[in-house]
Design brief:
This protein has 376 residues and is an alpha+beta fold. The chain has nine helices and 17 strands. Helix content is 30%, strand content 29%. Bound molecules: ligand LQESDW3C and manganese (II) ion.
Amino acid sequence: MQPIAFYCDTNSIEQNAMDQLRQYAQKPFVNNICAFTDIHYCSEKALPVGVAFETSGYCYPLITGKDIGCGVMYLKIDKEYWRRPFDKDAHYRALNFAHQKMTDDGLGGGNHFLSIEEDANAIYIICHTGTRDRGIALYQQCIQLTRDFSLQYGQAVDFVHTDFLTADFLKYYNDTLQFGYERRKNFCFKTLIFLQNANYIQCNKEAIDRNYLQANFKGKDHTGAMNGTPYLLEDSIHNHLRFEEQRIVHRKGSTELEKGKTVVIPLSMSRGSLLVQPADLPGAGNALYSCAHGAGRKLSRFDAMKYWKTVLKEKQRKAFKEQFAELLDRSGNFPQGYVQEFDFAYKDSVDIFKHQPYLKKVTQTIPVVTIKYSEI
Ligand SMILES: Nc1nc2c(ncn2[C@@H]2O[C@H](COP(=O)(O)O)[C@@H](O)[C@H]2O)c(=O)[nH]1
Ligand SMILES: [Mn+2]
């Protein structure tokens, strides 16, 4: 068995996730397998979430599941351009409505989100979404590829030789990752323009395109000005295979790092997000330039519902209802999907820097308003 690099507290790993991890560490061609602080069991696939490993000569195209190319983008605006606090009563519903028109496919289910968060100096528009149907189609192609390779190999295997990966397949794979990046960009820029339109951000209002929700901002630079407001954006992905010259890095729910680049580790709807950079580069290299992609689930969706109904006291449920009144349905209850995303469903984040010492904190943001998943 290949040794496992634990960038997390081993005592905090559930037994079923540990079993999955150990099984993977025994597989052929799997090298330098790393487990991060958000490691948790994945019922659908044989590898836990919160893991990275590398291979050469062969790859495991199915480890990601369908959400290939999922990632998190942030767009930062200096607070000197921020004019007033976000008024949920006046604008939550309008933003929720607008976000459904920002792309063809919406944010997607689960814990995908579009949030406005802040620290002392800046406002951050943060978007966590993937590649929707394109990721599913690519995953189906990965299944076919693995089947075809198995036939040639003479037995059913879950890996593929790199000679089997045609230039067309690799282009298709990378184009799908690019599609996710462009979708996140459209969410971020259109949210910025929504805020400009609603007088939250100082800008040149005359320059705003009335049809901005139909426009495509995929080509905008990472720094610049939008309708007179300076911005900066960065993107990162956490569910993909990165085909490099000498090796293939596999990341299943672990964020790809790059020297000098700030990435978001989202924590929860109540806690906001951490923005981090790789500080110790040899250290980050040993961790395959990867880190946790979130706080990580502590409670399964089922257990989160049980916790809500049976562990929390009425007073505590009331406090959630007051804090997130905008998410209540007409009968005054939260849809299940939101309850499953509340803070208690996620792990503590103290381990993030303790067990991934190659990371440095850039800032921590707190949420202003969050739009949760949307299926279109
Ligand atoms: N800032 C926010 N972070 C959130 C929210 N909901 C979930 N999360 C965190 O994101 C990661 C992403 O996990 P993934 O497996 O779906 O890619 C998760 O671990 C949480 O820590 C939110 O509303 N705001
Ligand atoms: Mn994701």
